[in-house]
Design a protein that fits this description.
Structural class: alpha+beta
Number of domains: 2
Strand order of the largest sheet: 3-4-5
Order of helices and strands: HHHEEHHEEEHEEEEEHHHH
Distance between the termini: 62 Å
Largest sheet: 3 strands, antiparallel
Number of helices: 10
Number of strands: 10
Helix content: 25-40%
Length: about 240
């Protein structure tokens, strides 16, 4: 009985903080982040790469709950920072690994990718005038404006802890109305607490924007953004 209870207490599904529970599949998380599924998979599972005399395997950059294939809300935040560093600034993965290892070992930060880098110095980036200097051996400069456009996807509390995530929608890097909050609807995408999938389902059954908006106390603009997020183009509902 004791062993069974201990196993339950260590289950990622019972993590005390809902932000640390497995909530999103690889496909879902990649869509919310605007990344390819294969890229995200390599970040959470590692990957093999050719090397003289054989192959090597890189270790994961993000630790998922129970080392499984599902991501937590915190994992989404970590992957969002990696996306800014890797996809936009083209900082080599080897340097990113050194940066993460440095923050863990020298600065005592077990999860440096969760730090509020946008707020100021943090412990991974040093502010230099209007630029941010990454703590890597090469001192790779990252343009503040682009990095912060990614970091603005995350709403934080007064202590800098991530609370909500604004996914990409349409051509927008950050949705203004659609949010992922692990405390609401088990982290599913919502607009003011209403699941975007529910809005899309009702629209698919032939209900109009005005009717859906009225039922949920939303504006038609909010309903529209939910539909675009769910892959329904403007032309589809405006016609």
């Amino acid at each position: 009985m004791k062993a069974s209870r201990a196993a339950q207490n260590h289950s990622p599904l019972l993590a005390p903080d809902p932000r640390d529970r497995p909530l999103y599949s690889l496909r879902e998380a990649a869509r919310y982040l605007g990344l390819s599924e294969s890229t995200l998979r390599s970040w959470i599972m590692g990957r093999t790469y050719p090397k003289a005399g054989g192959q090597e395997r890189s270790l994961p950059l993000i630790e998922t709950p129970g080392n499984g294939s599902q991501l937590s809300f915190f994992n989404l935040v970590e992957a969002n920072v990696l996306a800014a560093l890797r996809q936009i600034h083209r900082i080599p993965m080897q340097r990113i690994r050194r940066m993460i290892d440095y923050a863990k070992e020298a600065l005592g930060k077990p999860r440096p990718l969760l730090l509020d880098l946008e707020a100021g110095l943090g412990d991974v980036f040093l502010r230099q005038g209007k630029e941010l200097l990454a703590l890597t051996r090469a001192g790779q400069l990252a343009l503040q404006e682009v990095l912060e456009s990614y970091l603005s996807r995350v709403d934080r509390d007064e202590q800098g802890i991530p609370l909500r995530f604004h996914p990409a929608v349409g051509t927008q890097l950050r949705s203004e109305r659609v949010v992922l909050d692990p405390r609401v609807a088990f982290g599913a995408p919502t607009v003011r607490g209403v699941k975007t999938s529910v809005i899309a389902l009702r629209f698919n059954t032939g209900e109009g924007l005005e009717e859906i908006a009225k039922d949920y106390g939303l504006t038609e603009e909010e309903v529209t953004e939910a539909l675009v997020f769910e892959g329904m183009g403007v032309d589809a509902w405006a016609a």
